[in-house]
Amino acid sequence: MKFVFFYMVSYAVLLDRATFLNQITSDNTHLQSVSLSEQAAQARSEEGSLIFAPSAYSNIQVTSDGKLTTNRLVTYDSILSENYSAGLRAMTRFGLEAKLHYDIARITYINPVSGLPASLSQGMGLSSSAFINSTYNNAAPTLDLTQSIWGGGFGRTQKATEAQMRSGAKSAELNAGYQKRAILVDAEATYWRLSTARQLVKIQKEAESRAKKILSWSTRRADLGLEDQSDALQAEALAKSRTLERASSESEEHSAARAFNAARGISSDDVPEELEPLNDSMELPKKALHRIDVLAAEAQSLSIRASAQLNRERNLPTLEAFTSIALNGQQTGGLYGTIGASIQNSFSLVRPTIMGGIRFSLPLDFETTKNARRGWALEESAAERDIIRRQFDEEQSWLEITKKYADTKTHLELARTLETIQASKLAREQERLSHGRTTLFQVLQFEQDYSLAQLVRIQDESALVKALTQMKLFEDKDL
After folding, report:
1. Is the pTM higher than 0.85?
2. Under 8 Å CB-to-CB from 263, ≥6 apart: which residues?
3. Helices (DSSP H) in 108-228: which residue ranges?
């Protein structure tokens, strides 16, 4: 007598792993959020270069000043000052800041009155107001240059700021990329979890069916007095045990199904699609030079180093050399010039303004400055050591997971062989029992051995696929 059972279940359509991951990509809001963060980091990756990009600026200022003047030669009700400026500024990589701008200044005296004695002006045959320019115009193209020498000198501050911004953006981009990969790897693990759970349910239902057939056969024989009642009780205990195991496996299937649907944004534990069976013949992932999260940490370390340099430069004494050269187009040809005349004459070399100098500042709290610089140096050293440790941990993790994969693959081959042997052994023993050449206890024992061999094989397949999935965290190609 043989007890044979096949558990069959049909699903609507096959949902393979690649299609499921595509659903995750399109429907998982967490993945979408991380993808947007990655795109945002990519978009601002070159933001630091704006430090060296030229920029245009302008300024308009109008002032009315009615306070009394101390000048006794001229009095007035108020002064109206108009200032217009527009230009370009740029910072070079060697720390030279250049500004080229064009300035127009117009000063108007409201109701000016000369303070000269009337006898003096009348003696010259002039009115008292003839000595007063009521409007003064000046147009000046100007070039300002400032070169930093010490304390961020020769562009060190600007280059450190650029490196800090670029490395920070790169770190954010890589971190988001690693999160994306981790989400997809977790989703794939969820896929295989449900596939495993369904296979376990199938195995448990087959085992339950075999146990119930044995119980039915044993009960009939006990009723006919052909075997002891204790054999029937033992068969009943096995059937109840298989029912309990089947219920437990179904509970795990429901939990896995809910996690499966949650990953693709569905609130349900019903998965109508058919899934791929566990497949240990998938391509073995190839390790990249460094895992993405380690690359992100390296980028963050560069950002920390740039920040440390930036703050060290900030605490140094500052020394700058500066100069300014301006050409002046003032009113000419009379006492009352116009703005047009000033602009026309503004490129003349007749009345230039040339200025140059040096700026120096020195922090006087030497002890605090020294400690701050030492602190930033230690911060940089700590970041370098953190990278060394992360690289070491990464290598150890890869060695551990590849070792686990190799061991599990060997174990799986043995488990499959054992399952085949146990199936043959159980079938043979069932045949012997039908001819009265063995005991029911022996059949029950062999049935348990076969069920255990099936479970071990499923567990090994699941562990192998899990190891393969985790390896994908270490490769650099898309999932």
Report:
1. no
2. 24, 28, 186, 187, 190
3. 118-123, 156-223
